[in-house]
Structure formats: structure tokens, C-alpha cells
């Protein structure tokens, strides 16, 4: 019998919702995968606990002061894990020659540099961090084309679309695809009275009916900006134009997305709403491994509903479509303004309905430029954040 060396995995954002689900799947297959590096910004005690359990070669903490704290804890227990810090530390472990697979699960624009480092180093990259693709689409996809890296989508919708397409698929029309149906639950306020939305609290917005997720993506789901970011993500991942993609609201989150073919076939990927399914799929692709997720019981699910999204209730969806149609740095601006707005909402500085208003204003006044390289992306991101903070100050006097 052949003995297999486990593949080394780097989990960027290991203390987050996706990070923890990833470690759960990895722990089920110690013969196939070993944890080489773990990273986090905070929740250092949880990271220490993960180091005790998985004994990675490296742990990376964003801030050096917190890294020092972890280093002291691990040293006192005589654990061999080496603790690094900073964005350089994140890029180092994401591109380490020993690493085969990188799970990109940092939230927001902070994930861009390490994710890009993994792509440039030719890793198998499992992409959860949609913001990095949205903000840097053309630069990210060019880096992918120039490297030996493979990119597997973790976002449940994109993973579903990936599963419903032939592999590889460089052209939707050559594959006989008529369009992609991107499904979304509609979030916790799908049927709420629009007049009541300005009073929504962060905890209400983070209380998603079907998925348990980090706070930023939970707010994005409540505004449906998550679907907007996913719309842009799908355009880049599947070489699609906006008219190739239709958003469908599906409150039960059982169908994770669909592909309509020219011959009338509509392929769907279904399952219980649990991110361990797309994580296990992408990890093992093209094999299939056990994920810990129960088989879907369609009889107890009972019914599946579909409806058109209400863009007057969810203006973020329209803003995202406008951004990808405008091209260049418009998605970068959208993403940066959204990150500032969500942070302000979570801090109690901006009402829920102010999120879309702030983004729309930033998009109106910020000049769209061509994205040539990482520098132009980061410059556009910085500029949009500056504008967003200024407008935020005007909107709510902070
Ligand atoms: P989370 O907030 O639960 O976790 C984020 C992780 O990133 C944590 O480990 C945190 O310490 C780390 N982090 C945060 N800021 C950082 C920074 N500045 N530098 C370095 N590390 C930092 O988020 P999540 O829900 O796990 O989401 C992670 C990514 O996956 C997001 O881009 C999200 O859109 C995407 N995603 C999540 C889900 C889900 O079900 N949670 C589904 C689809 C896609
Ligand atoms: Mg999703």
C-alpha cells in the first residue's frame, strides 16, 4: 500500500468563523492534511488553544505586542510553534515553500496581500476572503493567470456554481451556459417594514436566520451588500459579465446557487447551510471527503421558495451592480466604503440605512481609475476610505 504524505495547510484567519470550520474539517483527515500555519488578529487565547491542538510550525499574529504575548504563552508550555507578526509574517507563511494549500479566510481588505502572496507562490488557494477579489479583481486574476496557483471558491454560492460548471471552464458560452443564478437568503430583514430599518441594532443585523458567520459578513448579508460583493466576485471568478448573472432570493438557503444551460437544464447544488461542505469540497477537489455535515433531508425541509430581490429595500445590490459595470477601481471604492460603513454601524455611529447612503455618496465623489497593479489598488482603497470617513463625519458628526 502507498503511504501518503499529508498536505501542509496554512489557515489565514484561523480564529474566525471560516477558520474554525476549516480546522474542524482538517481534524477529520489527519492522514491527508497537516496544519502548518495559523494566523489571527485577536482572540489570542483561542489561537493558543489551536496551537496546542494542531502544533503548527508557525502562528502569526497581526500586532507584535499580541504576538509577544502568544510567544510567551507557548514558550512556557514548551510548544515548538514559532510566532511571527505583521503583514510580512502573514505573507511569509502564505507563500512558504512547505505549504501546499492556503485557506484565505481573513475578513476584508486586510486579506489582500497574504492572499495575493499565496497566489503568486503558486498555491492551491481556497478563497473565502471575497473582499480581496472584489477590490483587486483585474490585478488578482492577472496574478492567478501568471502563476501555477489554482483558485477554489469557498463562498457557498460560488462553490455551488463551480460544482455546476464543467472543470476547467474558461468561457461560459463555450460551456453552453445561458446564465448563472446567484441565490441569497435575503437576510434577517427580507420581510421587515422598510420604515423600521433605520432602528435596526448591530445584534439584530448579525442574527442571520440560516448561517452563523463573522459580524462583518453578517451585516453585509442584512444589507444584501454580501450578495452585491458576491455578484462582483462571480464576474471575476467565472469570466462573466453582469448580464450573465441573475440574483434570486431563496429564504431557506438550501439551494446554494444554480447554472442554467442552453438546452434547458438547470443544475443546482444543494445541502444544509454549513460552510464545512464547500470547505471540504475545495480542500479535496476533485475527490470528495467527509465534512461532518449531515445529508440534506428534503422531506423535512418541505419546501423551497424563490423570489426576485427588492432593490428598493436593498440599494446595496444596485450599487454593486453599478460598480462592476463602471469597472476600474469602482468595486475597490464600493468595498472600501462598505468596510468603513459597516465598522461605523457596528460601533453604533451610523444607522443601518446609513450604510447604503454612505457608500452611494463615496461612489459619487471618488474618481474611478484603472487598476494596474497592487499599488493602484491600495491607493484607490485608501482614497475611498478617506472620503468615507469624511462623509461619515458629515452624516453623523463623528
Ligand atoms: P470572522 O470575523 O469570523 O474571522 C476573521 C478572521 O480574520 C479572524 O481570524 C481574525 O482574527 C482575522 N482578521 C481580522 N482582521 C484582520 C487583519 N486586519 N489582519 C489579519 N487578520 C485579521 O470572519 P468570517 O465570517 O470567518 O469571514 C472570513 C472571510 O470569509 C470574509 O471575507 C467573509 O466574507 C468570507 N465568508 C465567510 C462566510 C461565513 O460563513 N462566515 C461565508 C462565505 C464567505
Ligand atoms: Mg456566500
UniProtKB/TrEMBL annotation:
UniProt-recorded Gene Ontology molecular function terms: 1-deoxy-D-xylulose-5-phosphate reductoisomerase activity; isomerase activity; manganese ion binding; NADPH binding
Cofactor(s) needed: Mg(2+); Mn(2+)
Pfam families hit by this protein: DXP_redisom_C (PF08436), DXP_reductoisom (PF02670), DXPR_C (PF13288)
Catalytic activity from the UniProt record: 2-C-methyl-D-erythritol 4-phosphate + NADP(+) = 1-deoxy-D-xylulose 5-phosphate + NADPH + H(+)
Pathway(s) per entry: Isoprenoid biosynthesis; isopentenyl diphosphate biosynthesis via DXP pathway; isopentenyl diphosphate from 1-deoxy-D-xylulose 5-phosphate: step 1/6
Positions with a binding annotation for Mn(2+): 155, 157, 230
Keywords: Isoprene biosynthesis, Magnesium, Manganese, Metal-binding, NADP, Oxidoreductase
Domain DXP reductoisomerase C-terminal, chain residue ranges per copy: 270-386
GO biological process: isopentenyl diphosphate biosynthetic process, methylerythritol 4-phosphate pathway involved in terpenoid biosynthetic process
The UniProt record lists the keyword Magnesium: yes
Stretches assigned to the 1-deoxy-D-xylulose 5-phosphate reductoisomerase N-terminal domain: 9-137
Family annotation (Gene3D superfamilies): 1.10.1740.10, NAD(P)-binding Rossmann-like Domain (3.40.50.720)
Domain 1-deoxy-D-xylulose 5-phosphate reductoisomerase C-terminal: 151-238
Binding site for 1-deoxy-D-xylulose 5-phosphate: 130, 156-157, 185, 208, 221, 226-227, 230
Residues where NADPH binds: 15-18, 129, 131, 214
EC numbers on record: 1.1.1.267
Domain of life, source organism: Bacteria
Keyword Magnesium: yes
HAMAP family for this protein: DXP_reductoisom
Alphabetical list of NCBIfam families matching this protein: Dxr (TIGR00243), PRK05447.1-1 (NF003938), PRK12464.1 (NF009114)
Family to which this protein belongs: Belongs to the DXR family.
Function: Catalyzes the NADPH-dependent rearrangement and reduction of 1-deoxy-D-xylulose-5-phosphate (DXP) to 2-C-methyl-D-erythritol 4-phosphate (MEP).
Protein name: 1-deoxy-D-xylulose 5-phosphate reductoisomerase
Organism listed in the record: Microbulbifer agarilyticus
Amino acid at each position: 500500500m502507498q503511504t501518503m504524505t499529508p498536505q501542509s495547510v496554512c489557515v489565514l484567519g484561523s480564529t474566525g468563523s471560516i477558520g474554525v470550520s476549516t480546522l474542524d474539517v482538517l481534524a477529520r483527515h489527519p492522514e491527508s492534511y497537516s496544519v502548518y500555519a495559523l494566523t489571527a488578529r485577536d482572540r489570542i487565547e483561542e489561537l493558543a488553544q489551536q496551537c496546542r491542538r494542531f502544533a503548527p510550525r508557525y502562528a502569526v499574529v497581526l500586532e507584535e505586542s499580541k504576538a509577544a504575548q502568544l510567544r510567551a504563552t507557548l514558550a512556557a508550555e514548551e510548544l515548538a510553534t514559532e510566532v511571527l507578526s505583521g503583514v510580512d509574517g502573514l505573507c511569509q507563511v502564505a507563500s512558504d515553500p512547505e505549504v501546499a494549500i492556503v485557506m484565505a479566510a481573513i475578513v476584508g481588505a486586510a486579506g489582500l496581500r497574504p492572499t495575493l502572496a499565496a497566489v503568486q507562490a503558486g498555491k492551491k488557494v481556497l478563497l473565502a476572503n471575497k473582499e480581496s477579489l472584489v477590490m483587486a479583481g483585474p490585478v488578482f486574476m492577472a496574478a492567478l493567470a501568471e502563476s501555477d496557483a489554482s483558485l477554489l471558491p469557498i463562498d457557498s454560492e460560488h462553490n455551488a456554481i463551480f460544482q455546476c460548471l464543467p472543470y476547467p471552464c474558461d468561457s461560459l458560452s463555450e460551456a453552453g451556459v445561458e446564465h448563472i443564478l446567484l441565490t441569497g437568503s435575503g437576510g434577517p430583514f427580507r420581510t421587515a417594514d422598510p420604515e423600521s430599518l433605520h432602528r435596526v441594532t448591530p445584534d439584530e443585523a448579525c442574527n442571520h436566520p440560516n448561517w452563523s458567520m463573522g459580524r462583518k459578513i453578517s451585516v453585509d448579508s442584512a444589507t444584501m451588500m454580501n450578495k452585491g460583493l458576491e455578484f462582483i466576485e462571480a464576474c471575476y471568478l467565472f469570466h462573466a459579465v453582469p448580464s450573465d448573472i441573475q440574483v434570486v432570493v431563496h429564504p431557506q438557503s438550501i439551494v446554494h446557487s444554480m447554472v442554467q444551460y442552453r438546452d434547458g437544464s438547470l443544475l443546482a447544488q444543494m445541502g444544509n447551510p454549513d460552510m464545512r461542505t464547500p470547505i471540504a469540497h475545495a480542500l479535496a477537489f476533485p475527490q470528495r471527503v467527509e465534512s461532518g455535515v449531515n445529508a440534506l433531508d428534503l422531506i423535512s425541509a418541505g419546501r423551497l421558495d424563490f423570489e426576485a430581490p427588492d432593490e428598493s429595500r436593498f440599494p446595496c445590490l444596485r450599487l454593486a451592480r453599478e460598480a462592476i459595470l463602471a469597472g476600474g477601481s469602482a468595486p475597490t471604492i464600493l468595498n472600501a466604503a462598505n468596510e468603513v460603513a459597516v465598522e461605523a454601524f457596528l460601533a453604533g455611529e451610523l444607522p443601518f440605512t446609513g450604510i447604503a447612503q454612505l457608500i452611494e455618496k463615496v461612489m459619487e465623489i471618488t474618481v474611478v481609475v484603472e487598476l494596474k497593479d497592487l499599488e493602484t489598488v491600495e491607493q484607490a482603497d485608501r482614497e475611498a476610505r478617506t472620503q468615507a470617513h469624511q462623509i461619515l463625519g458629515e452624516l453623523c458628526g463623528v
